[in-house]
């Protein structure tokens, strides 16, 4: 296994083994984070709590990430990047095992909180890791490929785990996920080359302006995730309310996730050439899809058709914000990863809370419109902030 000093950043092809390992790890990370979404009604029924309370399992997880991502990244900046990544995968394994055997909602929530601590460090490390594996000219493509693991988490991980949970019980789904996490620790050990620690870095001239651009990108990231998870946290509730049987939720989530790969592909193909147009196109698709879901609800066919557009748009969102943030050069790659990670999870956690409030107040039919309104806010920021979201990667 090569040492960190034995290799230099190169092309995507040269970094293929490491990128595959990061993609697999990202797949497990997103599946762990999002699994309660598909099993929310079953968990709530078994634990005798309401859907809004069960939705807090997403909020707790995201809160841990939002609070701990930056301090954990800074405090571990001198540690081995590879060792840290493997440690987070071990922690994911323990978290999923705790959830699988939890005797009550309190222990279940504690298991999720522990997973949130792992997540706080995982994406902070992995975003910086991917950018260090390749030369700057390939940053967008590398991050899009690693983000494909996140898309696969939606496409395969969450839907298949949901179907498994429906067939054998939600505890079985978390138990199987724990086993796959343990296997991934071995995959990372074999395929991922070492890279230097993050350090604290010195930004030099123009640091203030670059930090402002990074702050704009991070804020927009939070707003977009807030809009997305106001709705997506309760997507299984929406689908059941259209008359879809419980056994159909997993396959439908599989389909929504699958079209998300189109967005991931689009981002990979265009981010290194037309970054601004890419983010505007994807956010426009998410907005149109959510509005369509709201207008069609509770008609199943219309909701599913609009969800295709929604899912395709969101499939590329993570990579566009990660790439935009890295290209601001407003901090080290690891600190930028921590900020992107933290702000995304501020949006995820707050979105679950906002969605619960809408569910308890105006009602289920208003969720898609609330989410779309927040995505529009993100679109407006992108339109105004041209220096944070430039038309070319060299800008």
TrEMBL record:
<feature type="transmembrane region" description="Helical">
    <location>
        <begin position="214"/>
        <end position="240"/>
    </location>
</feature>
<feature type="transmembrane region" description="Helical">
    <location>
        <begin position="172"/>
        <end position="193"/>
    </location>
</feature>
<keyword id="KW-1003">Cell membrane</keyword>
<dbReference type="Pfam" id="PF07690">
    <property type="entry name" value="MFS_1"/>
</dbReference>
<feature type="transmembrane region" description="Helical">
    <location>
        <begin position="12"/>
        <end position="32"/>
    </location>
</feature>
<dbReference type="GO" id="GO:0022857">
    <property type="term" value="F:transmembrane transporter activity"/>
</dbReference>
<dbReference type="InterPro" id="IPR050189">
    <property type="entry name" value="MFS_Efflux_Transporters"/>
</dbReference>
<feature type="transmembrane region" description="Helical">
    <location>
        <begin position="366"/>
        <end position="385"/>
    </location>
</feature>
<keyword id="KW-0472">Membrane</keyword>
<keyword id="KW-0812">Transmembrane</keyword>
<feature type="transmembrane region" description="Helical">
    <location>
        <begin position="52"/>
        <end position="72"/>
    </location>
</feature>
<protein>
    <submittedName>
        <fullName>Putative MFS family arabinose efflux permease</fullName>
    </submittedName>
</protein>
<feature type="transmembrane region" description="Helical">
    <location>
        <begin position="109"/>
        <end position="130"/>
    </location>
</feature>
<dbReference type="InterPro" id="IPR036259">
    <property type="entry name" value="MFS_trans_sf"/>
</dbReference>
<feature type="transmembrane region" description="Helical">
    <location>
        <begin position="84"/>
        <end position="103"/>
    </location>
</feature>
<dbReference type="InterPro" id="IPR020846">
    <property type="entry name" value="MFS_dom"/>
</dbReference>
<feature type="transmembrane region" description="Helical">
    <location>
        <begin position="246"/>
        <end position="267"/>
    </location>
</feature>
<keyword id="KW-1133">Transmembrane helix</keyword>
<feature type="transmembrane region" description="Helical">
    <location>
        <begin position="303"/>
        <end position="326"/>
    </location>
</feature>
<feature type="domain" description="Major facilitator superfamily (MFS) profile">
    <location>
        <begin position="18"/>
        <end position="390"/>
    </location>
</feature>
<feature type="transmembrane region" description="Helical">
    <location>
        <begin position="142"/>
        <end position="160"/>
    </location>
</feature>
<feature type="transmembrane region" description="Helical">
    <location>
        <begin position="338"/>
        <end position="360"/>
    </location>
</feature>
<dbReference type="InterPro" id="IPR011701">
    <property type="entry name" value="MFS"/>
</dbReference>
<dbReference type="GO" id="GO:0005886">
    <property type="term" value="C:plasma membrane"/>
</dbReference>
<feature type="transmembrane region" description="Helical">
    <location>
        <begin position="279"/>
        <end position="297"/>
    </location>
</feature>
